[in-house]
Design brief:
The protein is of the alpha+beta class. The chain has 4 helices and 12 strands, in the order H-H-H-E-E-E-E-E-E-E-H-E-E-E-E-E.
Amino acid sequence: MRSFTDYTKMKFYSRESLPEKLAAFVALNGKRERWGYTRSWKGDYLSQSEEPTYNPIKYRAAMLALKSSHPYEKVIFSTFFQKFNRFNKSSLRALVITDKFIAKFDAVNFKLLKEPTPLQNVSRISVCPEPNGLFIIHLADNDIVGCLKNPKEEERVGELVGTLLAQYERMNMRIPTVIVSPALSVCLGGKTRAVRIFPADPTQQAVFKKNGNDIDLICHNMTAA
């Protein structure tokens, strides 16, 4: 009964982004505390003037350059995120997902940091039951692990998941498995490491720290839907 009720409510809020919200509903409903279906999903947030912490003109110029060097049709999702890498370093980055690949940029000048990862290289996606911003995009031996950040404190992990899954459906590609669990692991540099989450004060920014062979994420739950 609860699933039917949630589905009915979700349909009411899904006049836009319906394929993405349906995909997120199937993957997350009943497993994740909040996944943002009640708000408008805008996808390419870094192109929006409402994200006030940077100059969107630089971002748009970077996307034109990216399209020239790595052709794509559309950016389907973009946001800032706190990234942790295999060298145990944590940095603010820009995550850009197009209809063909996933790319990471520095968060100031939007310089492309590595060759983009084709969507077909993603094996699965892991998230937490809590709306804390953590996501893991699993690749062969060096996953993308990070914590989504935005000035509105919106829960956008559900949108990230739904947007990716809907794109795989459009392309008739194998759809990655979505794992929702409080106990997650990540593969960095060919080594599997546990990710442990610790609560933080709402005013504190998300912080990744190395803890032996594990990774600690100190963060708070997003306050908006």
